[in-house]
Write a structure and sequence with these properties.
The structure is a homodimer. Chain A is about 45% helix and about 15% strand. The first copy, chain A, has about 325 residues and is of the alpha/beta class. In chain A, the strands form two sheets. A seven-stranded mixed beta sheet of chain A has the order 2-1-3-4-5-11-12, covered by helices on one side. A five-stranded parallel beta sheet of chain A has the order 7-6-8-9-10, sandwiched between helices. Chains A and B meet through helix 4, helix 5, strand 2, helix 6 and helix 10 of A and helix 4, helix 5, strand 2, helix 6 and helix 10 of B. The structure holds a DNA duplex (16 and 16 nucleotides). Chains A, B: This is LacI family transcriptional regulator.
Chain lengths: ~325, ~325
DNA sequence: CTGTTAGCGCCTTCAT
DNA sequence: ATGAAGGCGCTAACAG
């Protein structure tokens, strides 16, 4: 059976209060006493019950990660990043998928908050921009950090990259290679990043004096299937583009497959480039040019900001982390 | 703020015990009373605290899903399957990645069990065959269900497909198409299924009187990279095989990519077949022949078996679910 | 059928 | 610097 704080206190010859103090790293415990307690904890392999701590205290040492994404690779990346930091800090993460288009979304989130005593929540796109979720969180007064939110930037700490600049840079690269007719596959309409990436693409085209062609800009859904379909459409056009820019890696893999199916050499007949949100591109299209979005690191940073906040009462939330390309910069909000 | 059972009892004009009875669907509550309580619950949007229930009762309405797998698609499949059933039953799932090769594995699991009050655990491969994890679970006397375990079949309920027969069937198919030199990529050595699939392949070859060639059987790791490497090795051999059997879909995608890179037509120059553990193949290699392993359904069935057990005190654990191809059969253990 | 009385394991005032 | 007492929200025997 699991051992309890009472057994530890007996073993160490102190009161449970003292053990609790040691557990929570509180001051005013004589070093010698602290050592004895720590020894007893180790000897009994004691682990405080999350349920009991949540019930008694105002902290639960649990945070939740919300997501609603079509890409298993993406989900795995954010889960891994968030968990990595939580383990370091002795926190537990609740991975919670949700449906941003559901009518019950607000109720679902409220239920999660009521059932589970959480210390904070991380929102990943497109949940980062869900008005219902944000409202429920604010109502419950729970701290939250958003990954790559598109709007209301000042209502919460956030972690993001500059999608527009990144898309612009990739487009510059393609143009630099001599491409003038470049296809673009837009991401899922629910994701704000989709539009930001499109904007960056367009801005680069304009800067290079290249006219847009409507049929070269196709809607996708951030998943393999939609990328494959859009790729096929463009690659079978009478005058097909010489390059295709996919807004994420799943769609890029789809385009690559379409090219292969049509017997086109990559990058001989058709160049493919785009965002690598989840390191999938490193596997599927290693020779191609991508902007690597450090998804795992974004989630890691989000967890850190959140947990720092619960430790210090919210002070550190005044920071935001900007990850641009491979450069990580940290800057203070104007606040 | 979250409302409590006490507020519900006040609103309904009954004692908290009665509310608790309604919550837990216990008998001996007058229908009229039950209705009044349910109304109050709905009106106050009351959700019982998981922490409080876990502390007070012997049930927590929480189970854990353990995994240690290189494939994000696989992880997502089992998470989705398990969660789907848990939501139906009002349970919460804790997704817990672990490292079966870690020296701290036993401690990690013991920690999970001590911190979280769980009603049961689902093990997915290769955790299903981890002696440490199984020992920790048995020590804690917690019910657990294993997905596709390789050994000690009677120590727990299990959910599985017949990997050997499936591999045999696929091989038969390839031979039926006229292939005599078939490459085989073995799965991760930690997974029992890897060996079972190899055995099925070999048995089919033997039955058809085809001699094995050592260089046509290559070790893989169930991930894209290893499949890609093994595929390249075989496709660049002086006398390359006419077909390749990949032990899972990630490796199959790797082989497919290798074939494309080498300018080989699929399935013209090289046939590719194998297991589709995660529906990845449906996307990446739709025209190819695969055995679909219903991973999501396996996890769903595992969750059902586990929760049924907690409801009925373990009786239903005498059942096992066999999913073979698209046929689902349920049969009683000899027990 | 319903209510009363104790805790579950821990944190949190308050004393000392 | 340490301990005693009370309670978090709920379930579990007991009475009625």
């Amino acid at each position: 059976m699991r051992s309890t704080i009472r057994e530890v206190s007996a073993a160490a010859g102190v009161s449970v209060t003292t053990v609790s103090r040691v557990l929570n790293n509180e001051p005013y415990v004589k070093p010698a006493t602290r050592r004895r307690v720590e020894e007893a904890i180790a000897r009994l392999d004691f682990r405080p019950s999350v349920a009991a701590r949540a019930l008694a205290g105002q902290r639960s040492f649990q945070i939740a990660l919300l997501y609603d994404n079509p890409s298993p690779y993406y989900i795995y990346s954010i889960q891994t990043g968030a968990r990595a930091h939580c383990i370091e800090r002795g926190f537990r993460v609740v991975f919670q998928e949700c449906d941003v288009t559901s009518a019950d979304l607000a109720r679902d989130i409220a239920g999660l908050l009521a059932e589970t005593h959480l210390d904070g929540v991380i929102l990943s796109p497109p949940v980062s921009d869900s008005a219902e979720v944000i409202a429920a969180l604010q109502r419950s007064n729970l701290p939250f950090v958003r990954i790559a939110p598109g709007g209301s930037l000042d209502i919460s700490p956030r972690v993001f990259i500059d999608d527009e600049a990144a898309a612009e840079r990739i487009t510059d690269h393609l143009v630099g290679l001599g491409h003038r007719r470049i296809g673009f596959i837009i991401g899922h309409p629910d994701h704000v990043a989709s539009n930001q990436r499109l904007t960056g693409f367009r801005r680069a085209l304009a800067r290079h004096g290249i006219a847009e062609e409507a049929e070269l800009i196709q809607q996708g859904l951030f998943d393999f299937t939609s990328g494959h379909a859009a790729g096929r459409r463009m690659l079978t056009m009478a005058r097909r583009p010489s390059a295709i820019f996919a807004s994420n890696d799943d769609m890029g893999a789809g385009v690559l497959t379409a090219a292969h199916e049509l017997g086109l050499a990559v990058p001989g007949d058709i160049a493919i480039a785009g965002f690598d949100d989840t390191d999938l591109a490193r596997l599927v299209w290693p020779p191609l040019t991508t902007i690597r979005q450090p998804t795992r690191e974004l989630a890691h940073a989000a967890a850190k900001m959140l947990i720092d906040a619960t430790d210090t009462g919210g002070q550190q939330l005044d920071f935001e982390l900007v990850i641009r390309g491979s450069t990580v910069a940290q800057q203070r909000l104007k606040s």
